[in-house]
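Recall the central idea of this unit: under ordinary conditions, the amino acid sequence of a chain determines the structure it adopts. In this exercise we apply that idea directly, starting from the sequence alone.
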Amino acid sequence: MKIVIAGAGNVGTHLAKLLSVESQDIVLIDDCEERLGQMGSSFDLLTIQESPVSIDGLREAGTGSADLFVAVTPEESTNLISCQIAHSLGAKKTLARIDNGEYLNPKNMDFFHKTGIDSLIYPELLAAQEIVNGLKVSWIRQWWEFAGGLLVLMGIKIRLGAEILDKPLHELGPGQPFHIVAIMREGNTIIPSGNDMILAGDLVYFMTMKKEIRYIQRIAGKQQLPDVRDVIIMGGSRIAVRAAHLIPDHINLKIIESDMAQCHRLTELVDGRALIINGDGRDPSLLMSEGISHTEAFVALTDNSETNILACLAAKRFGVTKTIAEVENVDYINMAERLDIGTVINKKKIAASHIYQMMLDADVTNVKSLTFANADVAEFNVKEGARVTRCAVKDISLPRGVTIGGLIRNSQGLMVDGNTRIEPGDHVVVFCLEGMIKSVERYFN
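Accordingly, the structure predicted from this sequence is:
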């Protein structure tokens, strides 16, 4: 598959690295030599120093024969124009990064399709959605819903005292209303079998139904933790604004921003959905005066990863149950986990997961990257005659490092065991180690 990526910024380089590992034919184009940096020599891809809106530059990149053209420069207008040029040159699919939520309105999509733009992606909105999902339950690290919430994925840090500790998974009993699909332990990702055990300090990913959440809260030893009612966000970024509009009405929100001019803009942008405070979110006296000791969740969204990590550590010392940090430096993500930060948001990983979905040949509804674990999750729509429908799950012979977390059938979420038979029309949620989704999709075509 030939993929041309316009823009060697954070999202573009992360996506290029991800795809080059899979031996895709990748071309990265940018007009800045410094941004292209060592990409060409360090990864299996071609770099071209040209403007993403240069017709000659796009021709040189082979855009006319591209299966997918992705424009992810920081400039929205550049992305839209380069996708239109790429479409005219012959690219089969185009995707543009945007920063205007109005464009995502379904009634506007026909307009973009007619101009040669097949898909739009707004990383800040995606990040805000993940933050709001994380605030729904104070005791989880990550929360994702599939098929409108019929199945739920929860990443939970397991502490001493949890009743599921130190037992082989097969001893937890048959018919449990959950499936443990991945375990993150000391920087290593485990796709577990029945003989694996959960140890104190593990980050464990559960697949379940919403009605079983309280049961999992109990067995994970989290029943004493309160629901989220009060939230403080440090940093008035675009993510913060989007999160303010998505947070449920029953949650009280404060946004602390150090720049006075930005505070005035925020007051207009959030339209009364948050109290805007001018000050330094790292100032203990300010935090105390704003009730940090009675706040269930603290979200750090400045443009500095180190600041966000340290601010969350400080919030935990004040007794905050739930902390969320935007960490754009991928190298810091594992450090944040070791420091027990809580939930980590990374726009690069979020955006790359959504773009990656467009590359798959199978019918895929969702693709997500587990932030802390080197694993991905995908929701496949099962076609008639697909390989997974020919025998029971235990006889499918899925590759090592792959497990089926659950399925949706007739608008009902179901757990999966070895005797389950997958049927055409099912939506199946699959977990696998990073980079294995392409090897799994052949089972669902």
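The mean pLDDT is 89.
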